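I am writing to request your help with a piece of structural work I have in hand. I set the record out below, with my sincere thanks for your time.
___
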Amino acid sequence: MARQATGQIVERKRGRDVTFALRFRAHGDRHYVTLGKRSEGWTHKRAEDELSNVLADVRRGIWRPPTPEPDPEPPREEPTFHQFATEYVNGRRGDGLSQRTLDSLEWALSVHLLPHFARFRLSAITIEEVDRYRRVKVAEAERRRKAIADGRPLRDDAGRMLRPLGSDSINKTLKILAAVLDQAIEYGRIPSRDGHAPANAARGKRRRLKADRPRPVHLDGVDQLVAMLDAARELDADAKTRTAGRHALVATLMFAGPRVSEAGALLVRDLDLARARLDVGRSKTDAGMRSIDLLPVLRDVLAEHKAAHRGGLDDPLFPTATGAHRDKNNIRKRVLQPVIKRADELLAERGEHPLPLGVTPHKLRHSFASILVALGRDPSYVMAQLGHTDPAFTLRVYAHAMRFSEDERARLKALVEGVEWAPVGTKPARVVSEEPTA
């Protein structure tokens, strides 16, 4: 016959508090059940009542030992910024981002953010520390700018000149910092403090620098456009140079306005002379995937270029000497910089005003927009040709181009339509020539 259920109350003093528990026999076994602390409302009388209830359940055969609580998951160690940023980048690789976006992400992290924040625990990246990072980048840019002005530019380990970072670029690194911290908060990797959810220290307008207002550069005067074309053709004809195709590439940048990455990615099959269009299909945005209508002057130049091209349909339209695609650095250094230098020399020889400072492939894209507006194209058409979704840029260009005089518009129209242009104040005369074939 089983022994009758019996038990007792156990009181254990813990500092200034007392813990109450029950010790009793049930079903032939000894059991020990902790009830709680005096600070939690337990008293000896309440413990007696609980013991009576437990023993009654044992006699009725319905008492079951309490299910032990699972061991709590040990807290994960809070990662450093370096550790989580590595996790973040690896995760983003599988999100279908373009290589250009991934390169930009790695540039911001490896060159700028990690040198400053690598060893910080995520919760240690405070608003104060983000502001300190911003001030460090501003001071660094000023040192580089001063060194260049003094003729002693700072250089990296590979001997490359260190260029100052502009406000937009510094803000870009802050935006990426904020994105990394956003994900850390979502994943619960930043502990809460005092019961409050963690905040993103890199968010907010006060963390950002005032955006740069780049000096407008519009290469839209006929004399300057012609000098660029003449310089490019002259350099192509130089037997000592290994770089060919400058004339066609510069004309495309000026009169079709592709982004420099788009120009380098163009294939021979993207040029449709029969329909007078250039298909851009490798852009960074959906709006960037477009067909650009060829102005007559560009159609003539590209017809000549295609006739001399030795590659197949899937080869680069503007290849390097080895037949590879040109990247932005190749286009800037090997193509555009020599052309700009020679164009300034030609303008000086002709007694004309030199090119504006700061001519880049992207500024030539702006010039293409100015040309279209000066020719009377409406803003929606200009946006479509540029692959833009933001009308603000187009309207700024529109305001600039509307300042052209009637004589300037006439000369520009004569140039892009393949008509011989004459000095200001005279009427251009059309040149009759054979239409190029595809």
About this structure: The mean pLDDT is 84. The first helix runs from residue 44 to 60.
